[in-house]
Each structure stands twice: as structure tokens, then as C-alpha cells.
Design goal:
single chain, alpha+beta, Alpha-Beta Plaits, 4-stranded antiparallel beta sheet, 42% helix, globular, disordered N terminus
């Protein structure tokens, strides 16, 4: 069973590589296979934000207290699917926010809220270095 799954995976990977290399001859661009335009993707796709940050160890409790209001308010937004904060169990000064929004408009609405604008200055003295923030467009879900 495991060998068959591995063979199937290798076959799918090979097909993906072959299809990615096929395209408009001479253009160097992949073939258009009815994928949405970037404008359609930005409007219609779910968006995720992953923000990693380090907090001064002595300020970890203050940071989590400050984050509670942000989490509660964000989860009430109509365009927010979830907004969660995780703390590294091995280093209590490391945190990760994981957020999902219905689309780019929901992200924009989140960034425009008063509590979002106030959160940065509120936690500024707790943070070490610059947060690492990634905003990701989520591909379409396939449910089987």
C-alpha cells in the first residue's frame, strides 16, 4: 500500500513538473489552464496572515493580556474566519498569530479598525526586534 501511494505521488509530481514546463512556445510562460486572473484571486480568495514575534520574557504575560482584546474583537469581524494566538511551549517569549479572512476586503477592513491601529503602539514596549509577517492567498479548497 505504501509503495503504491509513493508511486502515485511520484507520478503526480512528474505530471505537475511536465505541465509547468509546457507553455506558450518561445514565451517562457506556462500555459493558461483557465486559472483566475490575479484580480479575481485577490478579491475571491481566502487570505491568511501569519505573524511571528518575540516578546521580552518579562513582558510575556503583559503581551498575552493585551492580545486578548485584539483576539476577541478580531474574531467578531464578519470577514474573519479565525484569529488565534499561539505561544511556543519551549520558549514563552515566542508567539505566532494565525488569522484567516474571507477575502482581501476583509483583511483591509481588519487593518482599518481602531483596535488594530491601537494594538501596535500598545505592545511596542513588549516586542523584541521586528515581527515576521506573511500574508498568504489561500488556493481554492477541494473537499472530497
Amino acid at each position: 500500500m505504501m509503495k503504491m501511494n509513493m508511486n502515485f505521488f511520484v507520478m503526480l509530481l512528474s505530471l505537475a513538473l511536465v505541465s509547468a514546463s509546457c507553455g506558450n512556445k518561445g514565451s517562457g510562460e506556462p500555459a493558461n489552464v483557465n486559472e483566475p486572473s490575479p484580480a479575481e484571486t485577490a478579491v475571491d480568495s481566502k487570505m491568511m496572515i501569519i505573524a511571528k514575534l518575540s516578546v521580552k520574557p518579562e513582558k510575556a504575560k503583559d503581551f498575552t493580556e493585551a492580545a486578548k482584546g485584539m483576539i476577541e474583537n478580531s474574531n467578531k469581524e464578519s470577514g474573519c474566519s479565525f484569529y488565534q494566538l499561539f505561544q511556543d511551549p519551549y520558549d514563552n517569549s515566542k508567539f505566532v498569530f494565525v488569522e484567516e479572512y474571507k477575502n482581501q476586503a476583509a483583511v483591509d477592513a481588519h487593518f482599518a479598525t481602531d483596535y488594530f491601529k491601537a494594538f501596535g503602539p500598545e505592545i511596542g514596549d513588549y516586542i523584541l526586534g521586528q515581527p515576521e509577517i506573511k500574508i498568504i492567498t489561500v488556493g481554492k479548497e477541494v473537499i472530497k
